[in-house]
Amino acid sequence: MPAPVHVSTHPLIQHKLARLRAVDTKPPEFRDLVSAIARGLFFEVTRDLRLAPVAVQTPLTQTTCQQIADRVGLVPVLRAGLGMADAMLEALPEAAVWHLGLYRDHATLKPVTYYNKLPPKPDMDVGIVLDPMLATGGSAIAAIDILKRAGTPRVAFVGLIAAPEGVAALQAAHPDVPVFLAALDSHLNDIGYIVPGLGDAGDRQFGTV
Ligand code: PRP
Ligand code: URA
Which residues sit with their C-beta closer than 6 Å to ligand 2? Predict the structure, then answer.
């Protein structure tokens, strides 16, 4: 049994997805939407983080509270994952950020790694791979391969929109990795774009169309 695929049904996320998909949404609004949706999904992916008790002195008394005990690594896949990482880092400033540069070759649709800023010995308990688009799944699988080879004990993937083909490929390659999405779309077209999708997530964030 592969780890679950969580597709958010939250009304706020659905509402923002509508604007994210719209062809007339310009980069400034697009970036705000990526950030807002990513922040919502972050609350889902961090649901199972381990907690440890901490003593807190309130104005009235001493009490026992909980703090996050897991060391979390955010792993944005460049370029398009960057906007997701900023939002999550605001929510958990203690997280480390490991940048991975991958692009999808237009002819073969295979991922090409061009940058890897993982520490030589990552000491994180959980690595969360961030990429808005899970299309063929090649980029996500390659990113997770890198994290696992580096010894990251637990890995999760967070995307905004996925194609069923990408989810199936990811689950076949990494059945232990839970997937968190804002939407699961219909299919890939013949040039590997998600339909209905939103187009090219990197170009739309950074105005490089
Ligand atoms: C996009 C996207 C993913 C990849 C998904 O990146 O951000 O990384 O494609 O496709 P896949 O599931 O078929 O691998 P792209 O290669 O366009 O690079 P960019 O973020 O620099 O624009
Ligand atoms: N990458 C994107 O940015 N969009 C897609 O639809 C597929 C891959």
Answer: 133, 135, 192-194, 197, 200-202
